[in-house]
Amino acid sequence: QAQLVESGGGLVQPGYSLTLSCTDPGRAFTRWSMGCFRQAPGKEREFVGAILAIRDVAVYGNSVKGRFNISRRDEKNTVTLNKTKQKHEDKGVYYCVADPTVPWNWAQNPWQNIYAWGLGTQVTISS
Protein backbone atom coordinates (compact mmCIF):
# COMPACT_ATOMS: atom_id res chain seq x y z
CA GLN A 1 0.00 0.00 0.00
CA ALA A 2 1.41 3.34 -1.06
CA GLN A 3 1.50 5.75 1.84
CA LEU A 4 3.75 8.25 3.54
CA VAL A 5 3.89 8.48 7.31
CA GLU A 6 5.28 11.49 9.16
CA SER A 7 6.55 11.54 12.73
CA GLY A 8 8.49 13.82 15.04
CA GLY A 9 6.27 16.85 15.26
CA GLY A 10 5.66 18.67 18.52
CA LEU A 11 6.44 21.76 20.56
CA VAL A 12 9.85 23.40 20.36
CA GLN A 13 11.28 26.69 21.54
CA PRO A 14 12.61 29.29 19.12
CA GLY A 15 16.25 28.71 18.30
CA TYR A 16 16.08 25.01 19.03
CA SER A 17 16.08 22.03 16.69
CA LEU A 18 13.52 19.42 15.76
CA THR A 19 13.79 16.42 13.51
CA LEU A 20 10.92 15.14 11.42
CA SER A 21 10.87 11.75 9.75
CA CYS A 22 8.93 10.43 6.81
CA THR A 23 8.60 6.72 6.20
CA ASP A 24 7.52 4.90 3.07
CA PRO A 25 6.51 1.55 4.61
CA GLY A 26 5.34 0.04 1.36
CA ARG A 27 8.54 1.05 -0.47
CA ALA A 28 6.33 2.58 -3.12
CA PHE A 29 8.46 5.70 -3.63
CA THR A 30 12.05 4.45 -3.53
CA ARG A 31 12.69 5.75 -7.05
CA TRP A 32 10.86 9.05 -6.55
CA SER A 33 11.97 12.37 -5.20
CA MET A 34 10.75 12.89 -1.65
CA GLY A 35 10.43 16.00 0.42
CA CYS A 36 8.35 18.25 2.61
CA PHE A 37 5.83 21.06 2.39
CA ARG A 38 4.36 22.99 5.28
CA GLN A 39 1.30 25.08 5.94
CA ALA A 40 0.80 27.59 8.71
CA PRO A 41 -2.68 28.76 9.74
CA GLY A 42 -4.06 31.22 7.21
CA LYS A 43 -1.14 30.83 4.84
CA GLU A 44 -0.49 29.09 1.56
CA ARG A 45 1.17 25.69 1.51
CA GLU A 46 4.90 26.24 1.16
CA PHE A 47 7.75 24.14 -0.21
CA VAL A 48 10.34 23.29 2.46
CA GLY A 49 12.81 20.92 0.84
CA ALA A 50 13.24 17.77 -1.20
CA ILE A 51 15.84 15.19 -2.12
CA LEU A 52 16.42 13.12 -5.20
CA ALA A 53 15.95 9.38 -5.23
CA ILE A 54 19.24 8.37 -6.78
CA ARG A 55 21.70 11.06 -5.78
CA ASP A 56 22.13 12.68 -2.41
CA VAL A 57 21.15 16.05 -3.84
CA ALA A 58 18.67 18.29 -2.08
CA VAL A 59 16.93 21.58 -2.76
CA TYR A 60 15.35 23.93 -0.21
CA GLY A 61 12.84 26.70 0.01
CA ASN A 62 14.32 30.17 0.48
CA SER A 63 12.92 30.59 3.97
CA VAL A 64 14.74 27.53 5.34
CA LYS A 65 18.03 27.52 3.44
CA GLY A 66 21.00 27.22 5.76
CA ARG A 67 18.82 26.10 8.68
CA PHE A 68 17.13 22.89 7.52
CA ASN A 69 18.76 19.77 6.16
CA ILE A 70 17.06 16.86 4.45
CA SER A 71 18.57 13.42 4.11
CA ARG A 72 17.51 10.03 2.88
CA ARG A 73 18.17 6.43 3.93
CA ASP A 74 16.78 4.11 1.33
CA GLU A 75 17.53 0.99 3.36
CA LYS A 76 15.06 2.26 5.94
CA ASN A 77 12.66 3.85 3.45
CA THR A 78 13.03 7.07 5.42
CA VAL A 79 13.58 10.73 4.71
CA THR A 80 14.63 12.96 7.60
CA LEU A 81 14.22 16.71 7.90
CA ASN A 82 16.50 18.25 10.50
CA LYS A 83 15.20 21.70 11.44
CA THR A 84 17.66 23.92 13.28
CA LYS A 85 17.52 27.53 14.53
CA GLN A 86 13.78 27.46 14.37
CA LYS A 87 11.74 30.62 14.18
CA HIS A 88 8.11 31.35 14.99
CA GLU A 89 7.34 31.32 11.28
CA ASP A 90 8.45 27.68 11.08
CA LYS A 91 5.26 26.57 12.81
CA GLY A 92 2.58 24.69 10.93
CA VAL A 93 1.64 21.29 9.61
CA TYR A 94 4.52 19.57 7.84
CA TYR A 95 3.61 17.19 5.05
CA CYS A 96 5.81 14.49 3.60
CA VAL A 97 5.54 14.25 -0.18
CA ALA A 98 6.74 12.10 -3.04
CA ASP A 99 6.70 12.71 -6.76
CA PRO A 100 8.35 11.15 -9.80
CA THR A 101 9.71 14.50 -11.01
CA VAL A 102 12.94 16.14 -9.91
CA PRO A 103 12.26 18.83 -7.29
CA TRP A 104 13.98 21.82 -8.89
CA ASN A 105 10.64 23.54 -9.57
CA TRP A 106 8.53 22.28 -6.70
CA ALA A 107 8.73 25.68 -4.98
CA GLN A 108 7.37 27.52 -8.02
CA ASN A 109 4.84 25.01 -9.31
CA PRO A 110 1.39 24.54 -7.78
CA TRP A 111 1.65 22.27 -4.76
CA GLN A 112 -1.35 20.37 -6.07
CA ASN A 113 0.94 18.91 -8.75
CA ILE A 114 2.73 16.76 -6.18
CA TYR A 115 1.51 13.18 -6.46
CA ALA A 116 1.65 11.67 -2.97
CA TRP A 117 1.08 13.25 0.44
CA GLY A 118 1.24 12.14 4.01
CA LEU A 119 -1.37 13.25 6.53
CA GLY A 120 0.98 15.76 8.14
CA THR A 121 2.51 16.38 11.54
CA GLN A 122 2.06 19.53 13.61
CA VAL A 123 5.00 21.68 14.66
CA THR A 124 4.50 24.44 17.23
CA ILE A 125 7.14 27.06 17.99
CA SER A 126 6.67 28.65 21.37
CA SER A 127 8.63 29.91 24.34
Keywords:
127 residues, mainly beta, four-stranded antiparallel β-sheet, 43% strand, globular
Describe the structure.
This protein has 127 residues and is mostly beta strands. Helices cover 0% and strands 43% of the residues. It contains no helices and eleven strands. It has strands spanning 5-7, 10-12, 18-23, 33-39, 46-51, 58-60, 68-73, 78-83, 92-99, 116-117, 121-125. The strands form two sheets. Strands 2, 4, 5, 6, 9, 10 and 11 form a seven-stranded mixed β-sheet that branches. It has a four-stranded antiparallel β-sheet with strand order 1-3-8-7, with no helix packed on it. Strand 4 and strand 5 (46-51) form a beta hairpin. The protein is globular and about 40 Å long. The mean pLDDT is 94.
Name the shape in a single word. Answer: globular
Oligomer: single chain
Distance between the termini: 40 Å
- The number of helical elements comes to 0
* Percent helix: under 10%
Strand content: 35-45%
SS-based class? mainly beta
| Mean pLDDT, all residues | 94
Largest sheet: 7 strands, mixed
Task: Give the H and E element order.
Answer: EEEEEEEEEEE
Unreliable residue runs: none
Total DSSP E strands: 11
- Tell me the radius of gyration: 13 Å
How does the SSE layout of this entry go?
Blueprint: E1 5-7, E2 10-12, E3 18-23, E4 33-39, E5 46-51, E6 58-60, E7 68-73, E8 78-83, E9 92-99, E10 116-117, E11 121-125
Parallel strand pairs: 2-11
Antiparallel strand pairs: 1-3, 3-8, 4-5, 4-9, 5-6, 7-8, 9-10, 9-11
Write a brief caption for the model.
The chain is mostly beta strands and 127 residues long.
